[in-house]
Amino acid sequence: MTAGLLLTAPQQATAGPPNLLTNAGFETAGAPGADMPSCWEKSGWGDNDFTYATVADAHSGTKAMKVSLTRRLSGDRKALVTENTTCAPTVVPGRQYDLSAWYKSNTPDVSVTVFRHDTTAGWQYWTDLQNPPVSAAWARTEVRTPAVPPGTDKITWGLSVYGVGTLTTDDYALEEVGAAPPQPACTGTPDECAKGRWEVIPAKNPIRSMHAVVLKNGKVLLIAGSGNDIAQFNAGTFTSAVYDPANGSFKTIPTPVDMFCSGHVQLSDGRVLVMSGNKGYPSADGKIGYQGLRDSYVFDPATEAYTRTNDMNGGHWYPSATVLGNGDVISFGGLKEDSTGNVTAERFSAAQNKWLPLNEVNQTWSYWGLYPSMILMQDGRLFYSGSHTFGNGTQGSGASVYDYGANTVTDVPGLRKKDERDESASVLLPPAQDQRVLTIGGGNNESNPAAHRLTELIDLKAPSPAYTAGPDLPQGLVDVGGVRRAQTGAEGKMYVSAVLLPDGKVLETGGGLHDRADPVFEASFFDPVTNTYKAGLPADPIPRTYHSGAFLLPDGRVMAVGDNPGNGTYNHNVSIYTPPYLFKGARPKLTSVIDTQWVYGDTQRITVDRPIAKAELIRPAAVTHSSDPNQRYVDLPLSVVNDTTVDLNVTSNPNLAPPGWYMLFGVDANGVPSVATWVHLGGASALAAAEEAPSPHVHDFADAPRAAPEPNPAKRDSAPVAPTVAGCDRHYGSASQCVPTRFPAEVEETTKARCDWLAAHQYPKRMKVNGSDPLRLDPDGDGYACT
């Protein structure tokens, strides 16, 4: 029923006249010798055979435009409103426009494609908004644009055909949406309405959680395993908990193995795949490092229990985990059972519900490090952003694109301080259709410099993607040994959390100045539209450094947990941030979502209690160590029937929105979101259809980067990794404590200065010396440091 909405019940635009297009029905011929009607041009790209024809088979008048593809390997063709000052309509930044056209097509591979004119950069692709269904008779398609970005003075658009078939179009319209909504009334204090509010809830987190996953029922799975506590490991005490935001309760869950520093990702059915974990802690003499498990489990939100899958092919302590467009999961990096670096890729088959044998998985034998941030691109390739945990970045530029099908790795330039991206955060910016990634901050646990404040931006749809410098991270207060001071100079933070919000902004929060020490109290919003930070937000009152995380709840608030500094303690306080959009008056309500089982390329009708300006799907969090490569915000272009009935246009590309459960938010013109409704995108039939269909509608930015691929390294068993990869000198204290192998630069290389630093950071007063004393912390030789 939903797929036929545009055919059976076409609705008139709510905006009404005037139509801002010239020659909207192709009735006026072009200049003498022109082969296109006035104010229209041929547009498209790629390897395909095509024809354009002005035909008499019109919806109204005497002319229509017919575009046919008879062969297609890549690209599209379309009739486009001419990109010039005469024909392209003038638009106002911040306003929205309804686009409509009448069409007939015999192919589902049609999209509404929009370009915008930037007053500085010129004409550029903006977005694809809709996939109108096949129609043998004339049907009307209508869709509303997002708010026009700043710096845009004109837009053009057309219906693209990107599969073999024929598309005929007529009677285009572009109409400005009505007057701007009234300003909201503040329902909190002026500060809350401008900046939001943090609060620490009364209930304590019962476990030392290192991992957080928002489940399809709105609850939160918190995983500790041994919780970086060697005593718990030796006792075989492994824990998880489920938090219910509805009533503030925690429920402890039996946990079969030490999932401390495992990987996790949501499968398409809403179960959570948890892979690897900790087989063993480092030896007291530091000769053996952490060891990775092969074990793999799925957690079922319905039963709140773990079930074992088959094992991975090897151990992967700190693995990546990225869900692909067909629902499979791919994993890289981490440490093997013998503490060496794992160089094999692992692939979990969604169809077979198991890890595939090694000979069925493409291999480059590359070592990607620990928790490498691998983000799925809209053409199915993976972008390694350079964010990782521990040590230096990968060889080369520190960022790259991996093409699984071609099995090639291509360097991506521009990442500054690529060897100081330990515990940085990378996030696919809203909306996912824009294919832009933001990378924030970072440090290095081996050299232990002050964390920096650099941020980088990359446009993955550019012909030759490269990082460019973003605005510096705002600064806050840093707690150095119990004394807070303002950050200065280039000081930034590592352990940063980046959370996508329903209004399209990114909350960055938490972090520390040095490895597992010196928490920074600062939070800000990053606005992807203006590429600017809004500084001065209230900071989480709880320090959030190593083993902390923040994530979006279905009600639009943000939850933050954890903090595990080098002295081995853990902070069990839980913070909740209420963003300023929740102090702007009543929230819009999704009064009905007719169908919660969605398929790609579908049109889904919802009803709301008042007008909304946008809607989106946000994939629920699965975060650890500043890393959640699957976090994404997918725009749902609107076809507005009236103030309370809206059709949502679902992407036809599973690589933009991998199958699974999503939070559906409706957002009004003031940025106030509804409470989320859970919807499921994909399913077996949808994925099968997607695999049989032509490649999704992507543009020439999906071509391979212009740099030559690196040669694939030869097959090998592992990569050497120092036992001190965690940045801790194991000659002191227990494996749960982390005396830094290198102290911050401002700490003099003397026994007194180092011991004073340890005391100020609340390390135990008597830490056993395990064997030798390389940092000279036991000058009296009594076997204990700093006594």
Automatic annotation (TrEMBL):
Transmembrane segments: none annotated. One of its GO terms (biological process) is carbohydrate metabolic process. SUPFAM superfamilies: E set domains, Galactose oxidase, central domain. InterPro entries: Gal_Oxase/kelch_b-propeller (IPR011043), Gal_Oxidase_central_sf (IPR037293), Glyoxal_oxidase_N (IPR009880), GO-like_E_set (IPR015202), Ig-like_fold (IPR013783), Ig_E-set (IPR014756). Residues 587-680 form the Galactose oxidase-like Early set domain. The keyword Signal applies. This is DUF1929 domain-containing protein. It comes from Streptomyces vinaceus. The lineage of its organism: Bacteria, Bacillati, Actinomycetota, Actinomycetes, Kitasatosporales.
